[in-house]
Amino acid sequence: MKLRADSTQRYRLAALAVLLTTLALIVPRVLLSLSAARASNEQSSGTQEPVAYLPLIARPNTPTTTPSTPTPTQVVLPDLIITNMSITLETGGACNYPSTNLGMRVWFQNIGDASAGAFVVELNGVRQNVVGGLGAGASDDMWFPSYAYPGLNTAIIDATFLVSESREDNNQLSQNVPIPTLPPTCTPTLTPSTTVTPTSFAGSP
Q: Which of 55, 89, 124, 166 could make a disulfide contact with 77, Cβ separation 3.0–4.6 Å?
């Protein structure tokens, strides 16, 4: 009798195990089918899950500013040039020259819009100072007691770069200069002097 009861108990346990195994296989499939059917019904009926929207925050209008380009300030500068050179007497073309020694006269000009301070003029390596400078548009000349003949004479203005100029590439002039014919000599015209004659008065001894 006891053996029969044990067999019945084992049979029941085996049947329960089969039932649980079957449920484990069927239940997930049933749930999957129900979920698919629900999704299909919602899609066909147009029902959707509510969607939450965040409010839009308007950005403030920031004015766009274009950086202004500064207007360059025009700097007014002098511009020194050599205009000419010639072999002459120190006295120039005067006929009453005391010496026949020749030299080179160099002409120069400031063609810039500003006055130039002191500068140096050079001829064939010999330098002389222009202490007073040169005004805008003004011209001047300078005599050097030497020159090259035959050969090339080179004159340079602002030879030591004392003056800031609008152009620095026009400060030199090179030329072959001929020997001139001296002007004829002359006797200086004398101005007659006034002779004072003493005047006698009546009653004087």
A: 166
